[in-house]
Amino acid sequence: MYSILKAQGVLPLVTQINIETAQIVLQSAADAGIKIIEFAARADNAKEVFTQMIAFKKANNLDVKIAVGSILSVDDAETFHQLGADCIVCPHTDLEIGNYCFKNNIYWIPGAATLNEILHANKLGAEIVKLFPADKIGGPGYVKAIRAPFPNLKIMPTGGVTLEESNLKSWFKSGVVCVGIGSNLFSKEMLLNLSYEESLNAFQNLIEVVEKTRN
Questions:
Q1: Which family is it part of (predicted)?
Q2: Sign of the CA dihedral 45, 50, 56, 58?
Q3: Which of 10, 164, 173, 199 could form a disulfide with 28 if both were Cys (CB 3.0 to 4.6 A apart)?
Q4: Helix, strand, or coil here: 8?
């Protein structure tokens, strides 16, 4: 999973979507060459939508992995793992969730804010740590500062990552492995009436701007 995220450079996130929109997102992501996306399980119908996403992915033989985000408890981690999640993403670091993921061979990306929290997540076995909310705790300058004494930290900032070249360039220059991007890729309004063409264009543009700013 690490190699996929590092190569892609970005983990696009969608949340609060209906089944039809979820299918559009999956199909367009696969067609654009996206290898992994995150579905944040925040809505009441998240399990139902995710179940349909997995069924659609299998029926159409789509080569795209699905990480499930906003996982707050080990029960939710177990539920979504059994439903077919390829990766579990959390806004925080929870030992129980981590242990469940390791025992069941599912990739775990916990969330952290401070240097000690990031190091703690690493000690628990996390390879990549989600820096959240990245823009509120210092942005790229913060990442650069904490990586100075710990250059091997593998960080994925989420929160405040935009499609602007200057924004992305500053994050990659700070040494992050990849970035997480959600509402700045698909706004709530856009998701309400998302077409396949709009979604495909969004993913293609995302890949293009990430490759441009990373090199």
A1: Belongs to the KHG/KDPG aldolase family.
A2: negative
A3: 199
A4: helix
pLDDT digits (tens, 9 = 90+) for 35-81: 999 999 999 999 999 999 999 999 999 999 999 999 999 999 999 99
Which 8-state DSSP code applies to residue 58? H
Helices (H) and strands (E) in the chain, counts: 10, 9
Q: Where are the beta strands (DSSP E) in 71-203?
A: 87-89, 107-109, 111-112, 129-131, 155-157, 179-181
For residue 36, the SS3 value is: strand
User: DSSP for 120-171?
Assistant: HHHHTT-SSEEETTTTTTTHHHHHHHHHTT-TT--EEEBSS--S-HHHHHHH
CA distances from 11 to 103, 149, 193 (A): 24, 26, 22
Q: Which amino acid is at 193?
A: N
State both tokens at 4.
């996929």
Two tokens, residue 146: 């904490």
> pLDDT of 89-138, one tens digit each?
999 999 999 999 999 999 999 999 999 999 999 999 999 999 999 999 99
- The one-letter code for the residue type at 22 is A
Contact 23, 56 (CB under 8 A): yes
Query: Chain-centre distance of CA 25, in angstroms?
Result: 14
Q: What's the rounded Cα separation, in Å, for the pair 175 and 142?
A: 11
Q: Which residues pair with 127 in a beta bridge?
A: none
31 within 8 A of 201, measured Cβ to Cβ: no
Nearest 5°: CA angle at 96, between 90 and 97?
30
The pLDDT, as a whole number, for residue 18 is: 95
